[in-house]
């Protein structure tokens, strides 16, 4: 999808800073440099996750390669008390919100844990594998927060393919009717697995919001500053009681849908090359160079941090213990029924036979 007149952009593809009548960025030089660090580290985490899966250390991996600006920029725009509801690809959001809790994501994809973290600790829900369900979760939370008088917003992340699910349309309608303080953040990466955007919808995602009675905004999802500014404005609007906003971040999935996917079967190398030229980190580094903020020292520090995080990711994953068998039943019911406990005792007895033989 090419840039449109409605699409918000603050950085040209060569890193030139653009002016916008509505959206501004007032970050300090330190914050601007830290954005670069987070973009680079998130990409390194993603590359490491992909490599670990190929080496048999993870069962599957859902890459976010190319979508770093959409995730880092939006997550940086939120307050600590805002509640985030991710799908299954938001590794950058998790890193910004919760730091090395991202290791729990790798544990999930390794099969070493069932969820990974306490959602209340970082106001970050667990990954949602079913497509679109997290949008309804976010709206429910937002309505409850509104009733409680809390000045917070909820943010639901999903892809373009999820907008074809009824759950997302239902979430839009509930949010509009209840004027819920929620931001719907769609990372439009052009492909719903192997289905291209043109076969999913006849019009842009962000315009769907108007049919439900709330505003939508389209932003260049590879422009980290524009994503930050648009998300901050939508979150502030939600907290101020003005209701939901739908953000469509136009980006591109440079990698596969997951490591079980072969994108060469359904997309061309020319398309991939075009979007590689638009990838977010190179553009943002060009901006820092133009602004006089990029230095060899900064690059060294950022790459050293990326190396450190990558080493921690690899060492942690390779030594993750197997989960206890009791995880199968411990987190299903607060008050387990007798039938489940009877099944659990049978399983314990079955497993004990092998331990005795050992």
For the record, give the distance between the C-alpha atoms at the N and C termini, rounded to a whole number: 60 Å
Mean pLDDT over the residues: 95
Radius of gyration: 21 Å
Portion of residues in helices?
A: 40-55%
CATH topology of the largest domain: Rossmann fold
Q: Determine the number of helices (DSSP H or I, runs of at least 4 residues).
A: 14
CATH architecture of the largest domain: 3-Layer(aba) Sandwich
Low-confidence stretches: none
Helix and strand run: HHEHHHHEHEEEHEHEHHHHH
Q: Quick one: CATH class of the largest domain?
A: Alpha Beta
Shape: globular
Structure description:
With about 350 residues, the protein is of the alpha/beta class. The protein has two domains: about 300 residues, Thiamin diphosphate (ThDP)-binding fold, Pyr/PP domains (Rossmann fold, 3-Layer(aba) Sandwich), CATH 3.40.50.970; about 35 residues. The chain is about 50% helix and about 10% strand. It contains 14 helices and seven strands. Strands 1-2-3-7-6 form a five-stranded parallel β-sheet, with helices on both faces. Helix 1 packs across helix 2, helix 1 packs parallel to helix 12 and helix 2 runs parallel beside helix 9. The chain is globular, with a radius of gyration of 21 Å.
């Amino acid at each position: 999808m090419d840039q449109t007149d409605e699409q918000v952009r603050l950085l040209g593809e060569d890193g030139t800073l653009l002016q916008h009548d509505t959206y501004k960025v007032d970050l300090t030089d330190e914050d601007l440099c830290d954005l670069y660090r987070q973009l680079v580290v998130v990409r390194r985490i993603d590359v490491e996750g992909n490599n670990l899966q190929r080496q048999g250390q993870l069962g599957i991996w859902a890459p976010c390669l190319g979508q770093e600006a959409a995730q880092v920029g939006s997550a940086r725009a939120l307050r600590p008390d805002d509640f985030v509801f991710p799908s299954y690809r938001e590794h950058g959001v998790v890193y910004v919100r919760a730091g090395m809790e991202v290791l729990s994501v790798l544990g999930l994809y390794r099969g070493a844990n069932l969820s990974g973290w306490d959602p209340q600790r970082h106001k970050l829900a667990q990954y949602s594998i079913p497509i679109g369900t997290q949008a309804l979760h976010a709206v429910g939370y937002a309505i409850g927060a509104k009733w409680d008088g809390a000045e917070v917003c909820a943010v639901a992340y999903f892809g373009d393919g999820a907008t074809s699910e009824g759950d997302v349309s239902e979430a839009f309608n509930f949010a509009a009717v209840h004027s819920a303080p929620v931001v719907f953040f769609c990372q439009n990466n052009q492909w719903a697995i192997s289905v291209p955007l043109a076969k999913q919808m006849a019009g842009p995602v962000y315009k769907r919001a108007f049919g439900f009675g709330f505003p939508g905004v389209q932003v260049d999802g590879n422009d980290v500053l524009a994503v930050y500014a648009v998300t901050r404005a939508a979150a502030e609007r939600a907290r101020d009681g003005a209701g939901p906003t739908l953000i469509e971040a136009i980006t591109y999935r440079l990698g596969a849908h997951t490591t079980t996917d072969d994108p060469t079967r359904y997309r061309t190398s020319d398309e991939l090359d075009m979007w590689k030229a638009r990838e977010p980190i190179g553009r943002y580094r060009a901006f820092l160079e133009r602004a006089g903020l990029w230095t060899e020292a900064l690059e060294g520090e950022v790459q050293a941090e990326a190396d450190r995080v990558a080493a921690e990711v690899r060492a942690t994953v390779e030594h993750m213990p197997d989960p206890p068998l009791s995880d199968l039943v411990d987190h299903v019911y607060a008050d387990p029924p007798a039938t489940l406990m009877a099944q659990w005792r049978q399983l314990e007895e079955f497993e004990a036979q092998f331990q005795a033989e050992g």
